[in-house]
UniProtKB/TrEMBL annotation:
GO terms for molecular function: phosphatidylinositol bisphosphate binding; transmembrane transporter binding. One of its GO terms (cellular component) is plasma membrane. Residues 1-21 are annotated as: Disordered. PANTHER family: PHOSPHOINOSITIDE-INTERACTING PROTEIN (PTHR16100:SF4), PHOSPHOINOSITIDE-INTERACTING PROTEIN FAMILY MEMBER (PTHR16100). This is PIRT protein. It comes from Halcyon senegalensis. The chain crosses the membrane at residues 54-79, 91-109.
Length: 132
C-alpha cells in the first residue's frame, strides 16, 4: 500500500487539492472554477439572464409609485401631514434609486454577454489550433 508523501511543512493536503495540482485538464479547471465557465455552451433563456435586474426595476417602480401616493396624500389630507411629508420623499428616493440601479444593470449584462461570446469564440479558435 502506498503512503502519500507529506508536504515540507508537515501538513497533509486533501485528496481534492492533490487532484487539482496533478491534473491540468480543462474539465478539472471547469469543475474547480466558481464562476460560469467559458467551456460550457449551455444556452440560457432571456429570463435566466435578466431576471435580477427586472425584479429590481419592478420593486423600484412600485416603491417610487408608493412614494408618489404618500407625497400626494400630504397635500390632500390635513391629518398626519408631517408623517406623510417625511415618509413620502424617503420612498420616492428609495424607489428612484432601485429603478435607476436596475436600468443601469441591464446594459452591463448585455456588455458581459457580448464579451462572453467573444471569449467563447477565441477559446474555440485556440482549441482548434492547439489540439491538432
Amino acid at each position: 500500500m502506498e503512503i502519500p508523501p507529506k508536504s515540507p511543512d508537515g501538513s497533509e493536503k486533501s485528496p481534492q487539492s492533490k487532484e487539482l495540482l496533478t491534473s491540468n485538464t480543462a474539465s478539472t479547471l471547469c469543475i474547480s472554477s466558481r464562476s460560469e465557465s467559458v467551456w460550457t455552451s449551455a444556452s440560457r433563456s432571456k429570463w435566466d439572464i435578466y431576471h435580477k435586474p427586472v425584479i429590481v426595476v419592478s420593486v423600484g417602480a412600485a416603491i417610487f409609485l408608493f412614494g408618489i401616493v404618500i407625497t400626494s396624500l400630504s397635500c390632500i389630507l390635513t391629518t398626519n401631514q408631517k408623517v406623510y411629508k417625511m415618509c413620502g420623499p424617503a420612498f420616492l428616493s428609495l424607489g428612484l434609486m432601485l429603478l435607476v440601479c436596475g436600468l443601469v444593470w441591464i446594459p452591463i449584462i448585455r456588455k458581459k454577454q457580448k464579451q462572453r461570446q467573444k471569449s467563447q469564440f477565441l477559446q474555440s479558435l485556440k482549441s482548434f489550433f492547439f489540439n491538432r
